[in-house]
Amino acid sequence: MPYDFDRIIDRSGTFAIKCDAAPDALPMWVADMEFETAPEVLEAIRQRAAHGVFGYTRFPEELREAYARWWKERHGLGIEPGWVLFANGVVPAISSMIRTLTSEGEKVLVQPPVYNMFYECITKNNRRVLENPLRLAEGQRSASDGALRYEIDFEDLEAKLADPECRLMLLCNPQNPSGRIWSRGELERIWQLASENGVTVISDEIHCDLADPGYKYVPFGSVSPECLKSSITCVAPTKSFNLAGLHSSAVFVSDPVLREKISRGMDTDGISGLNAFAPAATIAAFEKGGPWLDALCAYVAENKRILAEFLTAELPQIRLVEGHATYMCWLDCRAVAEDDVPLQKFLRGEAKLFVSSGSAYGPGGRGFLRINLACPRSMVLEGLRRLKTGVLAFGKL
Ligand SMILES: Cc1ncc(COP(=O)(O)O)c(C=O)c1O
Q: What domains lie within the chain, and their CATH numbers?
């Protein structure tokens, strides 16, 4: 393999949130990776840094074109470069769009357990959360699949979308924390119900590039021309190429009136600027980073397979939830701890393993942990050793 994903990189001194939050614990929580970005991206950043002048940066046409080409070639979604709006993060963009597209007190639908910041974006803007909880069903049980899998409760979704106070739905596609890739049929059904009820869908597709080999995510906008015209898609190179600290993201809005409205909102909120490194890094990622990304996905998929095997053999009381995208794995620990919070604290404090507490992802997350496997294999193995030691010791308390 031409890329060295096995190399341990010392992140101390780089102000990394993931490591500095608990320097004595193995960091397998927040969603960034322990890998150096693609060589082509690093080279683009080095060249930009060597220039030495870091003034205000415009949105070059090449950047819009890079997004459009990547989504066409990689994901089969035809978008026009002119549909791309830029933002310094998907979360700020979602927060801004909630302000633009809803009024205070209105409801925004989410499908928990789901990315915790969705909740913050809604409640901190004085909107109300409307939940369509995912249902946990028995999964397919192959070597790399978990024993459980999330399904959408469409009956409940239909009822919730019919609520006249619900104006907006936040879809997580693929899903964080489980990594579930929604099928075309599921997305079609969501679209049909949302459009029947006049609810706008924002599809957060930030994890879309990180599908396991042999799996493909379905862009929500690809469901139908009408869906592409009326929905909003949030994307970024930041998860896929480990560039979260560069704050480079984009929103695809096909409808010109909606785009103008959202663009004005993002400008007013002051989130539509890009930092001086973002265009160069993003263009390099989308133009040249494909081979590195393929190798990364294969490496992470092997980490996931190792985790699945380890749980079956060594820690069967923890069940893995099926997911074929992202480097996150979602662990059902309810047989060990009804409440994940003390378990997470114990693992962090005693076993020196920092994973995310499931409760943060909404009601369905109680008793679950999320573990980040975007790290060298030796770190995965050490993390699993600590998980086992910690879980067994916790069980004896
Ligand atoms: C679903 C999802 N959306 C958005 C983000 C964060 O996006 P950004 O850093 O661009 O605000 C994350 C990070 O984990 C995420 O999982």
A: 17-39+290-395 (3.90.1150.10), 47-288 (3.40.640.10)
